[in-house]
Each structure stands twice: as structure tokens, then as C-alpha cells.
Sequence to fold (640 residues):
Amino acid sequence: MDTTMTPRDLVEPSGDDTEFVFFSGKGGVGKSTVSCATATWLADNDYETLLVTTDPAPNLSDIFDQGIGHEVTEIEGIQNLSAIEIDPDTAAEEYRQETIEPMRQLLDDEEIQTVEEQLNSPCVEEIAAFDNFVDFMESPEYDVVVFDTAPTGHTIRLMELPTDWNAELEKGGSTCIGPAASMEDKKVQYERAIDTLQDTEQTTFAFVGKPEDSSIDEIERSAGDLAELGIESQLLILNGYLPESVCEDPFFAGKREDEQAVIERAHEEFDADATATYPLQPGEITGLDLLSDVAGVLYDGAEATVDVGSATDIETDQSVDVEALADPASIADRVTPSDDETRYLFFTGKGGVGKSTIAATSATKIAEAGYETLVVTTDPAAHLEDIFGEPVGHDPTSVSQANLDAARIDQEKALEEYRTQVLDHVTKMYEDKEDTEIDVDAAIANVEEELESPCAEEMAALEKFVSYFQEDGYDVVVFDTAPTGHTLRLLELPSDWKGFMDLGSLTKGAAPAKGDQYDEVIETMQDPERSSFAFVMYPEYTPMMEAYRAAEDLNDQVGIETAFVVANYLLPEEYGDNAFFANRRAQQENYLGEIKDRFETPMMLVPLRRDEPIGLEELSAFGDEITGLFEISKEEVTIQ
Fold:
């Protein structure tokens, strides 16, 4: 770590070539705010600046109070600044058409249909987003390009498939991101883009997070993935810490103390060249004055301005009755089994929204009611072990409560099990073939290479996930982190592309016996009498919109409807009796109304706690405060 560097040193251009600043982080941490403040500050310092977002829930238009959209647009009132909100769906469709058009004169209708099927891979959406990154990374008319939402290690690894481009192109083979022939023009462009990402003189990679241990854990894991690809994380910004002046009672004073400890930990542990912080504001950050305040703190060493005010400045929707939004009986009905069939309960949402705590608390209360319960996490951070305060292994093990088992899917073990299964199947499959034109060793080598794809890791986790549908003896199985529409669509990839063992063959094609099993599992997830998908969020714009988009994606692509939503971290009425928290509550109430309007499902309301619940006793007590869970424990349960 270079302790002599400042955030200004890292984002301000230092040479004649265009430079790039990437901001990465989970939804709702203030990434867009920091990106907009940085771009505005650079433009105010006479650098010709372009701001680009690929966030599926963009709010640049709200922050700058003007329409932006899918075209480069000049920002009103700021010289030298333009912005664009790349629409992921539009970008993916443009990419598909660019790939298919040159082939229409060369391939027949059946072959074109096969290519179109393959280009429905969810990986193609990531490639399309990266394609847009690449376009703007070759924009010499700008001094600096600021990216709100950086490509992940997952995305960048897709660029490296196949590792031997030339050999694959000569074979006319295929990859999980499309026919290799369509990649030919992209090869040099992608390699140049990755070289630029790895060049610390031309590129700054920054993470934005909240002052929470789980947020730092997520960032360290993501930074580690990027480091393995030769990309350094140089800047860490911790956003939204509680201002000391508003923490007037023990509840919020204690939370502030915890946040400051996390900030200290980040300074000591995270290997960044510079770290900066910015406080929580009483409302959302929009308008040039607040952006200027953010930038002044981050890059000019100014003190933050927190205008607490003397009353509630945020206009509230008077029609929103928070308590009336909840429907405890409906929640209880959706988390418990009907008849004698197992209920599968899925908690999903972006990192940092509290999924693991909600899943563990729900499982604890369901088990207390007498249902045999298994809670499973697919979260690579494996927070269940910390929450229960007991070991949780790769296979179901009992925790210290009747009717309750827990398990965590170990990604490395799952991948190794999956690799062995696929390669064994492929080897046996080719042993029975008499076609002498097939180079068996080359075919197996292709499969081994595809197994290095990040998509294979998702398939491995999904394979293990599917196995829990065959677990006997449970009334309820609770999943912490459900498979997304992106992951489930991997099952729909074509099983063959001109004989090449592409990623599709790693699903139904590589293990035909599993095809019916996959179909049965998806049918179970689509059945509201058997399965409940719940999206966890907190009532702010970005978490709400990301959850809404994911829910729509799951419904449109897989036919799975959202059973209920979980509104987490609701400010308690008994603490924070000042204008600052009055404004924050008003903002939450407005978003709770919007969540209800968008999702049209029952809502589980979860209060903000002083500390995260640890251990079964605290989880049980916390469950009594959550909509629907207290009602379960009071029901008369008859075990079939």
C-alpha cells in the first residue's frame, strides 16, 4: 500500500492519453453518487469527462435532474461533462444482431436458429456490457472516462475464453459466449481492453462500500478475484457513516461506534493506495450542490456538510401506512408447507441487504413451530456459520435446536465434484462412438477449458443446489441466496453446437439423465404451493430497482413469481428523535409505498437492530419482531 497517495492523485489524469476510473460495489452503497461527484469534479477542473453507467437500475437522470438515456448526453450547467446510461437489454440485443448478421449469408436457417439459441446465453449480456466498456475505452476525445459499475472478475474471465483463440477459430468452434468465428474481430480489442485495465498508470479501480463488516468482506473477495487477473484495486471509499452530531441516544451512538471500528479495520486490512469516507445525509444526494460537497470531501480534503435541519424536509406520501403494508397471515402462509409436501423458501437479493440474517431467522422460527427445517446458503461468504455461532459444513448438519439443520455449498468442492462428473460422462460418451473423424482428446480438452469458465462455477453450485430437492425428511428447505434468472437460464443452453462440447453440453448435454430432473426442479420452483421466492431489499432507490428488475427477469425468463418482499433495516420509532432521522424515516416510508406498488405482494417488515443477531436465542427474539414469523410460532402445527 502506497500511503503517500491521495484519492485526488488516483482519479486526476496525469498524461496525454485518455485515462479511466472504474467504480465498483454492490447496489445501494452510493456508487452512482460517488461516480457522479467524481465526474463533476473532474469536469470542473477542466478535464473533458465522460460518465458511463451500465447499472441496470441507473439513477444518473435523477442525480442530475435531466434525461440522459442510451445516448451520450451533455450535462446541463456543467462544462466538459457528458453522460450515458447504457441499457443492458438494448446492448445485448445490439450485440446479438451484430454477431448474427454476417452469418446470414453463410449459414442455413437451421444453423442460424442454433446460433440465435446460443446467443440467448445469459453470459452474452455480460459480454454486451463489456463491449460497451471497450467502445468507450477507445474514446480519445475525452481526457477521462468515469465508469459507474465496473466489469467484475466474472465478466473479465469470460473475455479469456477460449484461452487459445487461434486454435478455436481454426476449428470453427464455439464458446459459452457465442460461435468462435464471431469472436475473431473482438480478439485484439478485448486483449487491449484487459491490458488497459491492468495498467495502473492509465486505469484506477475503486470500490465503494458501506461501513459494515459484510460490505468489507464482499469488497475484499471481489478485489481478490480481480487481483488474480492482474487488476489492482487502488481506491476504497466507505460511504454513509452516521454523523456524530445526530447520534444522540445509545442505539445510534452504538451503531456509529461499530461503523468507526469497521472504517479502522478497512484502513488496516484493505490493500488500497488511498481510502476516503463520506457521511450519511438526511436525504438522497441529488443536485450539484451536494455532489460538490461529496467531491470536496473526497478530493479536496474539505469537511463534509450535513444539514440536519429542524423539521422533516422530505415530502411524505400521506397515503402510506407502514403497518398496513404488512400482511402477517399471508407471510406465514407463504413460508410454511401446505399439505404434506416440502415447502422451498428462497431469499434472494443483492449483497449487503441482510439475506443471510433473514434466512437464518426465518429457519429458526419455522423450526421452533415444529417443522423439520433445513437452511442452505450458496453465499460464498458463508455467513450462516457466523450467524448461528456454530460450524456449518458442505453437507447438512444439526445445529443446537430441535428440527433445524444447516448446510453451506462449498464452491470449490462443488466445482470439483461437477468437473469429475462432467469429464467422466464425456469420456464414456466418446468411448462408445465409432466416428473416426472425432478427435476424442481434443473434444475432452475443449470440455476441460469450458470448465474454467465462471459459468461452470454457477452450474456446479446449481447442481449442488438441485440436489437439495432430493433431500428427504424436511418440511421446509430455506435457501439463503436463490439462483437468479441468469443462473437458471444456463439450463436452457443448447446441448450441441456442430459437435463442439460447448457450455450447453455441460448442462443437459453432458448429463442427459439430469435433463428431466432439472425440469422437475424448475417446475417445483414455479409452483407457488411448493415454493416461495422472496426479494430482500432496504427501502432506497437502487436496492428497490435492482430487486424489481431481478424479479421481472425471473418471471419473464423462468416463469417464477415473487411470493413476498422483505423490507429490511427499517428505522425504529423509539430511537433517533431528531430532524435527521425524521427525514430518513420519511424517505423510507415513501419507498415502502413504491415497493408495495411495484411488487403487489405481501411485505415482511424487518427493523434495524443495534447489532446483528448471533446465536439461536437472539435469532428467535429477532424473529418475534419480524412480520409473519411471530405468527408461525403461535400456530398449532400438525406434522404429517
In short: Residues 494-513, 636-640 have pLDDT under 50 and may be disordered.
